[in-house]
Predict the structure of Right handed beta helix domain-containing protein.
Amino acid sequence: MSSVMRLFIGLAALWGRRCGASFFDHWLEHEARPLSLHEDSAFVRRWSSMRPAEEESVSSRRRLGSTEVSASDELIAAATVDGSDVVIANDISMEAEILVEYVSVSISSETGAVYALVGDGSFRLMHVHYSNMTLSRVLLKGGSSDLGGAIRLDDLSNATISEVIITGNDSGETEFSLGAGIAATDGSNVIIVDSVISSNRAHRGGGAGVYVGTEENGYGTVLTLVDTVVKNNSAGFDGGGLYIRGAQNVATCLCQFCVRLRRRRVFVYQRVLYGE
């Protein structure tokens, strides 16, 4: 049986699995129409308030030893410091790309909150290069780049992304534009848990939600999606939701999917499809 057939059998089997009430279950109840940033932020905060939490002061929501940021330049600077635990204190209008390079960092909203990082559509929001990153409880919107509008991971980077909404990003106007939401390439290992990847657009390219492939160094890229919604993404080419390029990527994804994909949103490209 081919890798492609095993992939689709695996997806079909997982389609019927009932996962516990989670971030993406609440989103499915909520997402009947396009939302403004204000409405998106209001939703994620309502969702946060539904989770059990003890009464706590503002100061207790800021982890000991963490770096609190409330502006674009502060966040960009903090993300360059190896070992930093960056806590976002409010919604931020981003003024430039966050470059996470040759470091290990953690970036999240303060405990009990989900804040938005919003671009103006003229640059990518985040580039993770030769780094390890943990990203949690944020909304990423308004990013744009030919490869990874919201997030690009490359060159053996590792990322764990949890309780994150990636929506309203694009991957440019060229025919090679890929991964409006996330592009993971060149040996990266990305784990996405309890998140939503929705309403992103690759105008003339593919993989509007997530693109996984090998671009330069030849290393296989690993994608793990768990309890995650990929929906309402659109692509001018193939894979509105998910575009997996390369046989190695198909094999690694096969056993690790617990993802809900709506309609025909998966495109798998590998050489065996063309008889090579």
User: Anything to note?
Assistant: The chain has one domain: 3-49+75-274. The radius of gyration is 18 Å. The chain is about 20% helix and 35% strand.
